[in-house]
Amino acid sequence: MKPWLTALPVYNEAQYVDEVLENVLKFTDQVLVVDDGSTDGTQERLDAWASRLPDSVSVVHHPENRGYGAALQTVFSYAIENNFEGVVTLDCDGQHQPCGIPEFIAAGRHADIVSGSRYLKEFEGDDAPPQERMFINRRITSDINRRLGFSLTDAFCGFKAYRTEALRELKITDDGYAMPLQLWVEAAAAGLHVTELPVPLIYLDLERSFGGSLDHAETRLNYYNQVLDDAIDSACREGRFRKRNGENDHVNSPCGEKGKRAAS
Protein backbone atom coordinates (compact mmCIF):
# COMPACT_ATOMS: atom_id res chain seq x y z
CA MET A 1 0.00 0.00 0.00
CA LYS A 2 1.27 3.49 -0.87
CA PRO A 3 1.67 6.18 1.81
CA TRP A 4 -0.69 9.12 2.13
CA LEU A 5 -1.75 11.32 -0.78
CA THR A 6 -2.47 15.04 -0.54
CA ALA A 7 -5.16 16.30 -2.90
CA LEU A 8 -6.46 19.70 -3.92
CA PRO A 9 -9.72 20.38 -5.79
CA VAL A 10 -9.11 23.47 -7.92
CA TYR A 11 -11.30 25.82 -9.93
CA ASN A 12 -9.92 29.11 -11.29
CA GLU A 13 -7.16 29.55 -8.70
CA ALA A 14 -4.40 30.94 -10.93
CA GLN A 15 -3.53 33.60 -8.38
CA TYR A 16 -2.93 31.07 -5.59
CA VAL A 17 -2.04 27.72 -7.15
CA ASP A 18 1.74 28.15 -7.53
CA GLU A 19 2.28 29.35 -3.97
CA VAL A 20 -0.05 26.74 -2.50
CA LEU A 21 1.60 23.87 -4.39
CA GLU A 22 5.07 25.08 -3.45
CA ASN A 23 4.07 25.02 0.22
CA VAL A 24 2.18 21.72 0.02
CA LEU A 25 5.22 19.97 -1.44
CA LYS A 26 7.21 20.88 1.67
CA PHE A 27 5.00 18.54 3.70
CA THR A 28 4.05 15.70 1.35
CA ASP A 29 5.62 13.58 -1.36
CA GLN A 30 2.55 12.84 -3.45
CA VAL A 31 0.10 15.51 -4.64
CA LEU A 32 -2.98 15.15 -6.80
CA VAL A 33 -4.66 18.26 -8.17
CA VAL A 34 -8.11 17.95 -9.70
CA ASP A 35 -8.70 20.88 -12.03
CA ASP A 36 -12.47 21.24 -12.25
CA GLY A 37 -12.71 22.96 -15.63
CA SER A 38 -10.66 26.09 -14.88
CA THR A 39 -10.58 28.79 -17.54
CA ASP A 40 -8.25 31.38 -15.97
CA GLY A 41 -4.86 29.82 -16.74
CA THR A 42 -4.88 27.41 -13.78
CA GLN A 43 -4.80 24.43 -16.14
CA GLU A 44 -1.57 25.54 -17.80
CA ARG A 45 0.09 26.24 -14.45
CA LEU A 46 -0.82 22.78 -13.19
CA ASP A 47 0.44 21.08 -16.33
CA ALA A 48 3.76 22.88 -15.88
CA TRP A 49 4.04 21.53 -12.33
CA ALA A 50 3.24 17.99 -13.45
CA SER A 51 5.78 18.23 -16.28
CA ARG A 52 8.47 19.57 -13.96
CA LEU A 53 7.79 17.14 -11.07
CA PRO A 54 6.18 14.05 -12.64
CA ASP A 55 7.03 11.82 -9.67
CA SER A 56 5.40 14.15 -7.15
CA VAL A 57 2.54 16.02 -8.86
CA SER A 58 -0.35 14.41 -10.73
CA VAL A 59 -3.13 16.39 -12.38
CA VAL A 60 -6.60 15.30 -13.46
CA HIS A 61 -8.56 17.74 -15.61
CA HIS A 62 -12.34 17.85 -15.78
CA PRO A 63 -13.16 19.17 -19.27
CA GLU A 64 -15.80 21.47 -17.77
CA ASN A 65 -16.73 22.74 -14.33
CA ARG A 66 -18.69 20.00 -12.56
CA GLY A 67 -18.59 21.21 -8.95
CA TYR A 68 -16.72 20.86 -5.66
CA GLY A 69 -18.31 17.52 -4.84
CA ALA A 70 -17.45 16.13 -8.26
CA ALA A 71 -13.79 17.12 -7.80
CA LEU A 72 -13.66 15.31 -4.46
CA GLN A 73 -15.31 12.23 -5.96
CA THR A 74 -12.41 12.15 -8.44
CA VAL A 75 -9.97 12.49 -5.53
CA PHE A 76 -11.58 9.61 -3.64
CA SER A 77 -11.60 7.33 -6.69
CA TYR A 78 -7.95 8.13 -7.41
CA ALA A 79 -6.89 7.34 -3.83
CA ILE A 80 -8.75 4.02 -3.90
CA GLU A 81 -7.62 2.97 -7.39
CA ASN A 82 -3.97 3.82 -6.66
CA ASN A 83 -3.97 2.02 -3.31
CA PHE A 84 -3.00 4.94 -1.06
CA GLU A 85 -3.30 4.42 2.68
CA GLY A 86 -5.27 7.64 2.90
CA VAL A 87 -5.73 11.13 1.49
CA VAL A 88 -5.56 14.62 2.94
CA THR A 89 -7.68 17.22 1.16
CA LEU A 90 -7.25 20.96 1.36
CA ASP A 91 -8.47 23.90 -0.67
CA CYS A 92 -6.26 25.81 -3.09
CA ASP A 93 -7.43 29.31 -2.20
CA GLY A 94 -4.94 29.95 0.60
CA GLN A 95 -7.42 29.30 3.42
CA HIS A 96 -5.68 26.13 4.63
CA GLN A 97 -2.11 25.98 5.92
CA PRO A 98 -0.15 23.09 4.36
CA CYS A 99 2.04 22.83 7.47
CA GLY A 100 -0.92 21.06 9.07
CA ILE A 101 -0.76 18.12 6.65
CA PRO A 102 1.50 15.91 8.86
CA GLU A 103 -0.82 16.41 11.84
CA PHE A 104 -3.83 15.36 9.78
CA ILE A 105 -2.00 12.25 8.55
CA ALA A 106 -0.99 11.32 12.10
CA ALA A 107 -4.57 11.73 13.33
CA GLY A 108 -5.84 9.79 10.31
CA ARG A 109 -4.04 6.69 11.52
CA HIS A 110 -6.41 6.58 14.48
CA ALA A 111 -9.68 7.74 12.87
CA ASP A 112 -11.60 7.09 9.68
CA ILE A 113 -12.17 10.79 8.96
CA VAL A 114 -10.28 13.72 10.47
CA SER A 115 -12.09 17.00 9.85
CA GLY A 116 -10.62 20.45 10.29
CA SER A 117 -12.55 22.86 12.48
CA ARG A 118 -12.23 26.63 12.38
CA TYR A 119 -14.33 26.94 15.55
CA LEU A 120 -12.74 24.37 17.85
CA LYS A 121 -9.96 26.73 18.98
CA GLU A 122 -9.03 30.38 18.54
CA PHE A 123 -5.68 31.14 16.91
CA GLU A 124 -3.83 34.43 17.10
CA GLY A 125 -4.56 36.36 13.91
CA ASP A 126 -7.80 34.53 13.09
CA ASP A 127 -9.97 36.35 10.55
CA ALA A 128 -13.56 37.23 11.36
CA PRO A 129 -15.81 34.90 9.34
CA PRO A 130 -18.61 36.39 7.23
CA GLN A 131 -21.62 36.43 9.54
CA GLU A 132 -24.03 34.70 7.16
CA ARG A 133 -21.54 31.88 6.49
CA MET A 134 -20.93 31.34 10.19
CA PHE A 135 -24.69 31.35 10.90
CA ILE A 136 -25.37 28.76 8.19
CA ASN A 137 -22.42 26.64 9.29
CA ARG A 138 -23.55 26.62 12.92
CA ARG A 139 -27.16 25.93 11.99
CA ILE A 140 -26.33 23.00 9.72
CA THR A 141 -23.64 21.65 12.06
CA SER A 142 -26.09 21.63 14.96
CA ASP A 143 -28.67 19.83 12.85
CA ILE A 144 -26.12 17.22 11.72
CA ASN A 145 -25.06 16.57 15.31
CA ARG A 146 -28.61 16.16 16.54
CA ARG A 147 -29.74 13.93 13.71
CA LEU A 148 -26.61 11.84 13.17
CA GLY A 149 -25.10 11.62 16.66
CA PHE A 150 -21.88 13.52 15.93
CA SER A 151 -20.24 16.25 18.03
CA LEU A 152 -18.90 18.41 15.21
CA THR A 153 -18.09 22.09 15.50
CA ASP A 154 -17.54 22.78 11.78
CA ALA A 155 -19.46 20.80 9.14
CA PHE A 156 -17.96 22.50 6.10
CA CYS A 157 -14.18 22.73 6.49
CA GLY A 158 -12.41 21.30 3.42
CA PHE A 159 -9.19 20.44 5.30
CA LYS A 160 -9.70 16.73 6.01
CA ALA A 161 -7.98 13.36 6.16
CA TYR A 162 -9.66 10.14 5.08
CA ARG A 163 -8.44 6.58 5.43
CA THR A 164 -8.90 4.88 2.08
CA GLU A 165 -10.70 1.93 3.65
CA ALA A 166 -13.24 4.42 5.00
CA LEU A 167 -13.68 5.97 1.55
CA ARG A 168 -14.78 2.58 0.26
CA GLU A 169 -17.74 2.81 2.66
CA LEU A 170 -18.99 6.15 1.32
CA LYS A 171 -21.60 6.56 -1.40
CA ILE A 172 -20.98 10.13 -2.54
CA THR A 173 -23.02 11.41 -5.48
CA ASP A 174 -23.52 15.13 -4.79
CA ASP A 175 -21.45 17.22 -7.21
CA GLY A 176 -21.83 20.62 -5.54
CA TYR A 177 -20.94 22.56 -2.40
CA ALA A 178 -23.44 20.53 -0.37
CA MET A 179 -21.36 17.38 -0.77
CA PRO A 180 -20.08 17.59 2.86
CA LEU A 181 -23.65 17.08 4.10
CA GLN A 182 -23.96 13.83 2.18
CA LEU A 183 -20.51 12.90 3.47
CA TRP A 184 -21.62 13.17 7.10
CA VAL A 185 -24.73 11.12 6.45
CA GLU A 186 -22.64 8.45 4.75
CA ALA A 187 -20.10 8.46 7.59
CA ALA A 188 -22.88 8.03 10.15
CA ALA A 189 -24.54 5.29 8.12
CA ALA A 190 -21.25 3.38 7.95
CA GLY A 191 -20.51 3.92 11.64
CA LEU A 192 -17.18 5.59 10.89
CA HIS A 193 -14.95 7.06 13.59
CA VAL A 194 -14.75 10.84 13.11
CA THR A 195 -12.57 13.35 14.93
CA GLU A 196 -11.78 17.06 14.50
CA LEU A 197 -8.53 19.03 14.46
CA PRO A 198 -8.47 22.81 15.04
CA VAL A 199 -7.31 24.94 12.10
CA PRO A 200 -6.94 28.72 11.82
CA LEU A 201 -9.76 30.84 10.45
CA ILE A 202 -8.44 32.37 7.23
CA TYR A 203 -10.62 34.22 4.73
CA LEU A 204 -8.74 35.72 1.77
CA ASP A 205 -11.74 36.15 -0.53
CA LEU A 206 -14.89 37.34 1.21
CA GLU A 207 -16.66 37.70 -2.13
CA ARG A 208 -16.24 34.09 -3.26
CA SER A 209 -19.31 32.90 -5.11
CA PHE A 210 -21.21 29.69 -4.43
CA GLY A 211 -22.80 29.98 -7.86
CA GLY A 212 -26.05 31.61 -8.98
CA SER A 213 -28.89 31.62 -6.47
CA LEU A 214 -26.73 29.91 -3.81
CA ASP A 215 -25.05 33.27 -3.18
CA HIS A 216 -28.29 34.19 -1.40
CA ALA A 217 -27.95 33.01 2.21
CA GLU A 218 -31.54 31.87 2.75
CA THR A 219 -31.61 30.01 -0.56
CA ARG A 220 -28.31 28.31 0.32
CA LEU A 221 -29.58 27.29 3.78
CA ASN A 222 -32.77 25.83 2.30
CA TYR A 223 -30.73 23.97 -0.29
CA TYR A 224 -28.41 22.51 2.34
CA ASN A 225 -31.40 21.41 4.43
CA GLN A 226 -32.93 19.67 1.43
CA VAL A 227 -29.68 17.88 0.57
CA LEU A 228 -29.35 16.70 4.18
CA ASP A 229 -32.97 15.48 4.23
CA ASP A 230 -32.56 13.67 0.92
CA ALA A 231 -29.28 12.02 1.94
CA ILE A 232 -30.77 10.75 5.20
CA ASP A 233 -33.94 9.55 3.50
CA SER A 234 -31.90 7.68 0.88
CA ALA A 235 -29.68 5.94 3.44
CA CYS A 236 -32.72 5.03 5.55
CA ARG A 237 -34.60 3.59 2.59
CA GLU A 238 -31.59 1.46 1.72
CA GLY A 239 -31.24 0.27 5.33
CA ARG A 240 -27.64 1.41 5.51
CA PHE A 241 -27.52 2.83 9.05
CA ARG A 242 -25.55 0.32 11.06
CA LYS A 243 -25.76 -0.46 14.74
CA ARG A 244 -22.66 0.81 16.53
CA ASN A 245 -20.85 -1.04 19.30
CA GLY A 246 -23.83 -3.16 20.26
CA GLU A 247 -26.29 -0.26 20.35
CA ASN A 248 -29.94 -0.95 19.64
CA ASP A 249 -31.43 -0.13 16.26
CA HIS A 250 -32.84 3.25 17.29
CA VAL A 251 -29.85 4.85 19.05
CA ASN A 252 -28.28 7.56 16.88
CA SER A 253 -30.50 6.58 13.94
CA PRO A 254 -31.99 9.54 12.04
CA CYS A 255 -34.64 7.34 10.42
CA GLY A 256 -38.26 8.05 11.30
CA GLU A 257 -40.10 11.16 12.40
CA LYS A 258 -37.83 11.81 15.41
CA GLY A 259 -34.90 12.32 13.07
CA LYS A 260 -36.49 15.15 11.12
CA ARG A 261 -34.81 18.52 11.31
CA ALA A 262 -36.18 21.23 13.54
CA ALA A 263 -38.56 23.70 11.97
CA SER A 264 -36.91 26.86 10.70
TrEMBL record:
Entry superkingdom: Bacteria
EC category name: transferase
Keywords: Glycosyltransferase, Transferase
Entry keyword annotation includes Glycosyltransferase: yes
Entry's EC annotation: 2.4.1.83
Signal peptide (UniProt feature, chain positions): none
Gene Ontology terms describing biological process: protein N-linked glycosylation
Molecular function GO labels: dolichyl-phosphate beta-D-mannosyltransferase activity
Keyword field contains Transferase: yes
Region (Disordered): 245-264
Domain Glycosyltransferase 2-like: 8-170
InterPro entries reported in the protein's UniProt record: Glyco_trans_2-like (IPR001173), Glycosyltransferase_2 (IPR050256), Nucleotide-diphossugar_trans (IPR029044)
PANTHER family: RFBJ PROTEIN (PTHR48090:SF7), UNDECAPRENYL-PHOSPHATE 4-DEOXY-4-FORMAMIDO-L-ARABINOSE TRANSFERASE-RELATED (PTHR48090)
Name under which the protein is recorded: Probable dolichyl-phosphate mannose synthase
Organism this protein belongs to: Rhodopirellula baltica (strain DSM 10527 / NCIMB 13988 / SH1)
